[in-house]
Amino acid sequence: MSGGAEHEERAYVYMVRCAGGQLYTGWTNDPGARLHAHKTGKGAKATRAMGAKRFAYLERCADKSDALRREAALKKLPKAKKEALCGEWEGKNLPRLSVATRADAADILEIYNWYVLNHTATFQVTPSTLEEYEDWVDNTRKVAPLLLARDAEGKLLGYACAHRWHPREAYDWSVESTIYCAPDARGLGVGTLLYRALLEVLDACGYWNVYALVADPNPASEHIHQRLGFSCVGRTPHTAYKWGWLGLSTWWLALRSGSEKPAPIRLASPEETAAILKKYGSI
């Protein structure tokens, strides 16, 4: 599952890097959605004119009032101090990719259960247990390597993996992708980085089709899937009820095409996986 609406109120102050190097300062309660609005010309007049590219700085605040005060303070800083803040933040938050083991289950579970309790990106409503997720990690790694992104201090920023699309043998060459980012890491490019690495790993394993289920509507998630080459192949309204009725869209990406009998799936070797992750910034 990907995308969806958030149930928990949060507040952030941010600086967005624009196409010409300028910095735009603002506040938001949803970093991912706000960056998407800036990049598509729906955020602010300034970013429409300058062309928003990415977050250069993001700071969690206690509430909206705190975020507004911090926003005002940042706007008063000279450009050099703003750049120093951005440089320090970017150095700390640059994602380092690695492959998960059973020992990473607790960190993965912390992110996932936040979405269970606060977001419609998953339709699960009851939090999972550590024991369940330790087994989940082991089972997931049988399909393809489970990828992690951590910051310089080791904090988990997000994870990406794949599961069988259907249990019957004829579906062996099709998988469903799963991407989750830590709440404070959304909008930082972590999800796209993990997704691109995951797709390369799945291609190395010999898979033909990747499917993604997206809570509907979710323009930001749909934009990411479109950018990565996915096509929407179906929408079903009133599919699930979580704080209200939700729809579901199915997205499909073909990694291969043809009519020949496919070769058996094999797990990408540690060496192959390491070479792919190195391209995206492995630990």
UniProtKB/TrEMBL annotation:
What residue stretches are annotated with the N-acetyltransferase domain?
Answer: 95-258
The highest taxon in the source lineage is: Bacteria
In alphabetical order, the GO MF annotations are: acyltransferase activity, transferring groups other than amino-acyl groups
Return the Pfam families for the record. Acetyltransf_1 (PF00583), GIY-YIG (PF01541)
- Signal peptide span: none
Q: Pinpoint the GIY-YIG domain residues.
A: 9-84
Q: Which family does it belong to?
A: Belongs to the UPF0213 family.
Q: What's the name of the protein?
A: GNAT family N-acetyltransferase
The organism encoding this protein is Faecalibacterium hattorii
Its taxonomic placement starts with: Bacteria, Bacillati, Bacillota, Clostridia, Eubacteriales
